[in-house]
Structure formats: structure tokens, C-alpha cells
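Quiz preparation item.
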């Protein structure tokens, strides 16, 4: 069984002129983790005290502003080989930024002028229809008039709210100016309603009698002139974006790279001439890295590597060796299930291949339908070829492929294809006919009420419990091997999930099978072995301390040890019982899936016409999405609580390498 990847701590002493090239090499390798979290502390400081020490970051941000001004979409990742910025890049960047800023300032200035001309034109146009002196309007004894500005979107709202209590008239074409007329007694109500919609009163000169036609024409011409100037600027901006797009993105990538390297460099230990870089790397890459750095720096870098046992902070327990798991494409997809629960300890067995196998197996048992499994399989294939994106789930493409295959296999056994039990009948009869009497399904799931059907259902539940026993057993074996590997002999021998606890679990299962299947009579030695293994497990902690040489053996006295042993007995019995019976849910979900398929099939049969197809599509879609999620959650739960709990008594430290990414600065 493979263990976690062997790691080495490397120490580099690098000259100042070489440090960025070395860091760039480490970042592109993507397999180097700084020993003391240099990467995270440098990223945290990018917006704070160290920003002034990172001119590349400042220029990158200015280039991003220029890109946004030119309305160009940002890129997601580095394209091709990206070089560190040189002196000529600084000149190019400043010229480009300056050109964009000048253009942007002209656009802002012209937009402001156009806005003012527009307001003047609309204001003038609004009162062009007011051909009665304002002084005469105010002299009306029975009428109250209100003239002012309003959001055109609120015009219908104010008309409806005032109803027949006032007359509302648009002044001008855009509806942003209105005249409201009402009786004197309704003026307070009208003023309140106008206030609700943001009405702004406009003062009209006493002798105002409308606007001369030539003044309106002049304002209109000025407005149209400003609009044409703004259109010309827009064309100029588009032309600048087209001609300088390649240069802008080249500079953005160069300065993104430079900013990230400078941020890390600012956090390294250094003297006036030399930088010290320490970090963890997989052991199989040490020699290649040494050659690469020697080539980059022409042999000017001092390089040392250490075994984890040679690192003082690791030996003292102050630092954990980061854990890296190395797998192929398929198993790698399941790694996040491990790390979402916790990282294995360094030097222990890598559980990912078992997780991949058990997840695929359990999902297929609970979600057996050849057609619905085919949907998962096709989705996984499309995700692999980047034809489909579903909210980030495409990174789990191989998981979709695996569960699709397992669901299809189970569907062939149960005879279900998109909740239809008729389509696969020929296949079922052919296969079963090879071994005797032909049947419609190889493994019928729906109970029919017959004795044979009930027996078959209980046998299936027994099978799922047996699968659970295998999973629990493997978890115990992994834990025992891990404890011996970590030189925790006492825990390996006497722990609840050590040899004594495992012996109790295995013997009780064997004892129960003998009674149920072979009708054996319990013997005295059975009770002695069960009781002795349970007693040893109950006092596992003091026994482990005794074997491992920890003193005192009874940390809190005899009475506390006895109470602890009683509690431990209850916990051992209840946990092993629940861990085993918990897998009954696998059979229950498989049966529930068959029942749902049966319901969909019957609804399809009783639905007339084209409705049959609609019911089948909607029913299967609901099952694929909702039940698929529920089954996935149940499988994860079984792995977390029944499998992981056996050997995840302590978590390690996940390997998080330094990786150069264009989007890294955006994330901060």
C-alpha cells in the first residue's frame, strides 16, 4: 500500500541578482512549499505595509485600470511563456497608461459638457410650451400650480396616485419636467405625493413667457455637436484598444509575474547580497530542481536538502511535514474528499485509492439505473473535453465518469433504464438464461410480496452490511499499520481501533455468523475471548502508556481509569454496532431508487399522448439531480464517519505549493 509522498526540506542561498529567477523557477514548478508560510504572509501584505516595496504591483494595478477603461475583458491565466518585465517594458507601460488616461479624461470632460447641454436643452424645451406669464399663473385664486423636475419613470406613478385630485402635464418631450394643477384645498395632499417621488420645484421668472425658437435651435445644435465629439472619442478608444491589445496583455502578464515574485522576495530572510529560501519539495524532484537552479544561476546558488527526521522543528513536534498525494487523473479527482475531512499524517498510508473505490461502488449500488448513469458518464466525458461547465464541478469530471459507469453496471443488473424496466428485459433474460431459468432482471429490486422476494431483499441488505464490514475492516487495518509506522506501538496494540478493538469487532462478527448460518452453540471460550478483548480495549489508554514508556501510567488515578474503562466499553460496543448497521442505508437507498423508478414508470403509463414523454423526462431529471445529490451526500457521510473515523485520529498538514498564477493578485 502506497504511503504519502516522501518529502525533503531544501535550503537555497541565492544572490540578490538571481533571486527572482530562482523564485520564478519554483513557482513554475508548482511543487515547492515555503517552510514558514512566506507565500501567505506576502500576499496578505500586498495591500498594506509592503505595497510601497512592490512597484510592479502598483504598475500592474494601473495597467488593469487602463484595460478596464478600454473595455477589454481580462484573461484568466498566463498565456505561453511570460517573461519578467525589463526596463523597456516600463517605458511602454507608462506611454500606454498615459494615452489611455488622457483619452479617459477627455471622455469624462466631454461627457460632463454633454450632460450640462442636455439639461439646458431639456429645461428650455420643457418651458417652450409655457406661453402665459408666470405671474398670472400665481394670481389664480382657486388653483395651485407646481412646476418642477421628476424622474420620468415616476410619471405614471404620480398620475395614478393623484388620480382626479390634480391634473399632471408633461413639459417637454422626455417627461422629466411636469406641471401639476389642483384646487387650493388639495395642495397639501398633492405636495405630499410629489415629495414621495422626489419632485424638485423649479422657480420660473415672473415675466417668463416661453423660449424663442432660435435659442432652442442653438442649444439643439450644441447638443448634437457634443454627441458627435463623444462618438469620435469612442471610436478613438476602440481603435486604441484594438491596436494595443496584444501589448497591454503582454505587459499585464509580465507585471503580474513580477509583482508576485517581488511580494515573496520582500518576505524572505536576506542580507545585503544573499537571500535564504527554505521549503518542502517531493523527494523525487530534488535532483532535477538542483540541476535546474544550477543552470539558471550558473552554479552561484548553494543548495542543501534534509530528511524530515533531520529537521529540528519536525523532530520537536513544532512543525508537521506537508502531505502531498501523488495519483493518476482518475484517483486524483477524489483527493478533495480526503483533504475536506483532514490531511493524513506524513508517512502514513494514502487512503485516496480506497476512497475512490468505495465511493464509486457505494454510489452505484444506491443509484442503479443504466440510463441515468449514462447521463453522469456523458457529463463527465463532456467536462473532460471542456465542452460543459457546471459551476466549477467540471474539476470532478472523472468522479462523474466513475459513478456513471458504476450506476450503469448496477442498472444492467436491476434492469432499469431511465426508470423503465422493460427495455433491458432481453438483456436480463439472456444473462440469466446462461445460468439456468431466464428472468426479466438479473437482480430484481422491487419487492413483490412473495416469500422469495422478501428473502432476496434481506439478502441484499446483508450484502450491503458485508460491504460495510469490509470498509470498516480496511479502516482498522490502515490505522494499525499507520500507528506502527509512527512508532505508536501502544495505540496500535490496545486502541479502540487498534489490534484489541479490531479483534473484538472481528470475533463478534464471526461469532454472530456462526450462530446464524451454522447454528453453532456458544462456547465458554467465545465469551472469554470477547470479554478479554473488550477489557483490554477498555483499558487501552493506560496499557498504551505502559508500552510506549509514558509515565505515570494512570494519569488521573485508579478510580478515573475505571470510570474511563466503563465509558470506553459502552463506546466500543455502540460505535462498532452503529458502524456496521449504518450500511443498511445503502440497501435502503437502493430500494428507494427502485421505488422512485417504479412510480415514474407507472405515471408514464397512465399519462396519455405526448404527456408520456414529458413525465418521463421530468421524472428522470428530478431523480438525477435531487436523488443524485442525496446519494452522494450519503456516500460521503459513510466514508467520513465509518471509514475515516478509524484512522483519522490526528490530521496532518496539506501540501500547498507556491504556484504562479495570473489570477493570484485578483484573489487578494
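Solution:
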Amino acid at each position: 500500500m502506497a504511503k504519502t509522498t516522501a518529502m525533503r526540506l531544501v535550503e537555497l542561498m541565492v544572490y540578490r541578482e538571481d533571486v527572482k529567477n530562482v523564485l520564478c523557477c519554483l513557482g513554475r514548478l508548482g511543487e515547492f512549499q515555503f517552510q514558514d508560510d512566506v507565500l501567505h504572509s506576502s500576499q496578505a501584505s500586498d495591500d498594506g505595509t509592503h505595497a510601497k516595496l512592490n512597484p510592479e504591483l502598483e504598475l500592474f494595478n494601473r495597467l488593469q485600470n487602463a484595460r478596464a477603461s478600454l473595455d477589454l475583458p481580462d484573461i484568466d491565466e498566463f498565456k505561453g511563456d511570460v517573461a519578467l518585465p525589463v526596463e523597456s517594458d516600463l517605458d511602454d507601460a507608462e506611454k500606454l497608461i498615459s494615452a489611455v488616461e488622457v483619452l479617459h479624461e477627455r471622455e469624462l470632460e466631454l461627457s460632463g459638457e454633454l450632460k450640462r447641454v442636455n439639461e439646458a436643452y431639456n429645461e428650455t424645451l420643457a418651458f417652450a410650451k409655457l406661453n402665459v406669464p408666470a405671474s398670472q399663473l400665481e394670481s389664480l385664486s382657486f388653483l395651485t400650480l407646481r412646476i418642477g423636475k421628476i424622474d420620468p419613470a415616476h410619471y405614471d406613478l404620480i398620475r395614478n396616485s393623484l388620480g382626479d385630485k390634480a391634473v399632471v402635464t408633461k413639459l417637454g418631450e422626455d417627461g422629466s419636467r411636469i406641471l401639476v394643477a389642483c384646487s387650493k384645498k388639495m395642495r397639501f395632499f398633492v405636495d405630499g405625493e410629489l415629495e414621495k417621488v422626489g419632485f424638485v420645484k423649479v422657480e420660473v421668472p415672473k415675466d417668463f413667457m416661453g423660449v424663442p425658437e432660435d435659442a432652442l435651435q442653438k442649444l439643439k445644435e450644441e447638443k448634437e455637436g457634443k454627441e458627435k465629439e463623444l462618438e469620435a472619442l469612442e471610436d478613438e478608444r476602440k481603435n486604441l484598444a484594438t491596436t494595443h491589445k496584444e501589448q497591454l496583455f503582454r505587459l499585464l502578464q509580465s507585471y503580474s509575474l513580477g509583482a508576485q515574485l517581488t511580494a515573496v522576495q520582500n518576505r524572505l530572510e536576506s542580507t545585503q547580497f544573499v537571500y535564504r529560501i527554505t521549503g518542502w519539495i517531493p523527494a523525487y524532484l530534488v535532483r532535477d530542481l538542483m540541476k535546474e537552479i544550477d543552470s539558471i544561476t550558473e552554479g552561484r546558488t548553494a543548495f542543501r536538502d534534509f530528511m524530515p527526521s533531520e529537521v529540528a522543528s519536525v523532530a520537536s513536534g513544532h512543525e508537521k511535514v506537508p502531505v502531498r498525494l501523488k495519483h493518476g487523473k482518475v484517483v486524483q479527482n477524489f483527493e478533495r474528499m480526503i483533504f475536506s475531512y483532514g490531511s493524513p499524517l506524513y508517512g502514513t498510508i494514502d487512503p485516496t485509492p480506497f476512497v475512490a473505490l468505495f465511493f464509486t461502488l457505494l454510489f452505484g449500488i444506491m443509484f442503479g439505473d443504466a440510463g441515468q448513469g449514462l447521463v453522469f458518464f456523458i457529463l463527465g466525458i463532456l467536462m473532460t473535453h471542456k465542452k460543459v461547465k457546471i459551476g466549477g464541478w467540471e474539476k470532478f469530471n472523472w468522479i462523474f465518469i466513475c459513478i456513471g459507469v458504476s450506476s450503469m453496471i448496477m442498472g444492467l443488473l436491476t434492469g432499469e433504464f431511465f426508470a423503465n424496466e422493460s427495455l433491458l428485459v432481453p438483456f436480463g433474460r439472456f444473462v440469466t438464461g446462461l445460468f439456468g431459468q431466464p428472468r426479466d432482471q438479473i437482480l430484481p429490486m422491487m419487492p413483490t410480496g412473495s416469500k422469495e422476494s422478501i428473502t432476496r431483499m434481506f439478502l441484499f441488505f446483508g450484502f450491503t452490511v458485508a460491504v460495510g464490514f469490509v470498509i470498516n475492516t480496511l479502516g482498522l487495518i490502515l490505522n494499525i499499520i499507520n500507528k506502527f509506522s509512527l512508532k505508536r506501538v501502544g495505540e496500535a496494540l490496545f486502541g479502540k481501533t487498534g489490534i484489541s478493538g479490531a479483534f473484538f469487532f472481528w470475533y463478534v462478527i464471526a461469532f454472530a455468523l456462526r450462530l446464524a448460518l451454522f447454528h453453532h452453540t456458544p462456547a465458554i471460550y467465545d465469551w472469554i475471548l470477547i470479554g478479554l478483548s473488550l477489557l483490554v480495549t477498555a483499558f487501552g489508554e493506560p496499557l498504551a502508556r505502559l508500552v510506549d514508556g509514558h509515565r505515570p501510567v494512570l494519569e488521573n488515578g485508579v478510580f478515573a481509569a475505571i470510570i474511563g474503562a466503563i465509558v470506553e466499553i459502552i463506546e466500543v460496543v455502540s460505535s462498532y454496532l452503529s458502524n456496521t448497521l449504518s450500511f443498511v442505508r445503502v440497501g435502503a437507498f437502493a430500494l428507494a431508487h427502485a421505488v422512485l423508478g417504479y412510480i415514474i414508470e407507472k405515471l408514464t403509463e397512465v399519462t396519455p399522448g405526448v404527456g408520456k414523454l414529458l413525465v418521463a423526462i421530468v421524472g428522470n431529471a428530478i431523480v438525477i439531480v435531487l436523488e443524485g445529490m442525496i446519494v452522494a451526500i450519503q456516500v460521503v457521510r459513510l466514508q467520513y464517519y465509518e471509514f475515516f473515523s478509524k484512522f483519522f485520529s490526528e490530521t496532518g498538514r496539506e501540501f500547498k505549493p507556491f504556484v504562479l498564477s495570473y489570477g493570484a493578485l485578483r484573489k487578494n
